[in-house]
Amino acid sequence: MLESVAQPIESAIRDSALVVTHNLEKVQLSATVGYIEGNITFIDSSRLVFFEFLRQIGDGVQREKYRHHFMDGNGQLIFRYDNAPHHPEVATFPDHKHLPTGLVESVALHFADVFVEIEAYVLGIT
User: Fold this and answer.
1) Which end of the chain is more exposed for a tag (fewer CB within 10 A), N or C?
2) Neighbours of 46 (CB within 10 A)
3) Total number of domains constituting the chain
4) DSSP letter string over 27-64?
5) CA–CA gap between residue 79 and residue 50 (Å, rounded)
6) pLDDT tens for the chain, residues 1 to 126
7) CATH number (domain holding residue 69)
């Protein structure tokens, strides 16, 4: 189950010329439940720390919880996507995005989408 989610993540990291270091942990808690978490450092010293809690349901994999926290080299928030249920006032509840200026609505993005946003930021095209 974890490999179907981890493989595209590992490929994106491996294929990016912007990644300096990374670690990735895959933990299978049961036949149908597990999580993937990691830490990636980019060429500008920015970092992504992420976590995805997964459950296999039939032939599919459901991401029950996620957090993609992107920060600069000093540890200051650039953005964080998550679905922690602590902002019921947001129309996209529980999904939302944290920015230095506050909270905004957001759909649940997958790792690949977040990674593309980060690469654009590191390259200075956003």
Assistant:
1) C
2) 20
3) 1
4) EE-SSSEEEEEEEEEETTS-EEEEEEEEEEETTEEEEE
5) 12
6) 788 899 999 999 999 999 999 999 999 999 999 999 999 999 999 999 999 999 999 989 999 999 999 999 999 999 999 999 999 999 999 999 999 999 999 999 999 999 999 999 999 997
7) 3.10.450
